[in-house]
Task: structure prediction
Amino acid sequence: VRLVESGGDLVQTGGSLRLSCAASGGFFRLNTMTWHRQAPGKQRELVARINSGGWADYIDSVKGRFTISRDNAKKTVYLQMNSLKPEDTAVYYCGSVDVLGSAYWGQGTQVTVSS
Result:
């Protein structure tokens, strides 16, 4: 499975970004797709995930602001981020977990929110 993220950028507080993650290989429609992030000096954390049935959940700090979605035909998962805050600044990684539990990662895309 190969994952390629895009959409990271520098944005002002309150702005919006949409991250995309294009997958190739594997059985995309069966996999749970995730977005993680890692800020400088901090551990990588799970931000949102969406399973094969479209059920999604989020960490508390992004609920109501971020939306994860998937397009199985395009083998792409998205993260719509609204009302961005400086504390959202991080490298965002796309992840894919297959039915056997094997995990795959993209290379990451930088999101910077200026105050």
